[in-house]
Amino acid sequence: MPAAVWQVRVRTKLDDLHQQLSFLAARGAGNAARVAALRAQLSGVEAVLGRSGVVEWLRGGRLEYAWQSIHAVERAMVELRTPAELLGLLPAYQAAAAQFLKADDKVLTAFDASTDVGAPALFQAKVRALLQQYHSASDEFHESVRRLRNRMLGLSVFALVAEALMVLAQWRSRDVQLLKPPTDAAGVPAWRLLFFVLIAGALGAFISALPSMINSRSGGLPYKLPFQQGLLKLAIGPLVAVVGIMLVIGGLVETTVNSTAALLGVAIVFGAGQQAVTAFADRRASELLTPVTKS
Description:
With about 300 residues, the chain is mainly alpha-helical. It folds into two domains: about 5-140, no CATH class; about 145-295, no CATH class. The protein has helices at about 5-25, 30-50, 55-60, 60-75, 85-95, 105-110, 115, 120-170, 190-215, 225-250, 260-270, 275-295.
């Protein structure tokens, strides 16, 4: 049983390819050796399906190996198909490739049904070139998405660690206060006040990010970019809240904080302002997902 969604997709694709190979093998004895070799290549993909550790999850080696092997088998199967079969499959190949290739790419526009069937070798070469270009673009796209996911995850972890260290340092240090307590919180320990400010900042980040996260789409990708974007916002929001309140207390922002409620309210506002900091990640994710989500 597949342990992850991406493995379900791989498993489904493997089953489909095995069915196609069975059909190709039954059609002629001359295909038997080639089909057996392709089945052996697919069996290597089946061996990597299963649970993986955190390091493998970050690197994505199994995922890339699985899909690149599947792509290689798909390209090799072109030689086993008749020109009529390739002509029937061509629209599906072109539609899949159009998600990643430009509309005027030569490998998409180089086909002519009236002449291609009469030149089987050339037709097969054109189809293989289309699949090669499409598969390369798809692999590069998924690698870019995985790198972005890892960067956002790294930033989120760094922000959470920084916040934990801030609370710990404030708890250990009684001489230096990062935040000046309001008059109605004079007896509250500084670390506890800082902790509540961080929570308020996370609340503001959550409120501001909620609409975009509800409307976001992952395009069927295995990397769950919308989830990573939301995690980054929740991690950055508290830091922005603390920095903003420091600016207020330092007199760099024209407002005053005279009560705990006002302090937490300002923290929520600044936490919501994390959008200005995390906008770069949102733009990059949108750029990457646009070719997939529009299809």
